[in-house]
Amino acid sequence: MLARVQERATGASRMTLYREGARRPVRVDLSKVFSATDRHVEIMRDDPSET
């Protein structure tokens, strides 16, 4: 199962958060957030139902 999930990895490296009332969005470098583990895989929401 893990191999099938990893095949569908998005490869996302950044996330942008838009906060209500904020002047600018917050940009998060995901490689820094998840650098402590190699077990994080970002996939699209509908992908699990298609496997």
TrEMBL record:
Top-rank taxon, per record = Bacteria
- Name of this protein: Uncharacterized protein
Recorded source organism is Actinomadura fulvescens
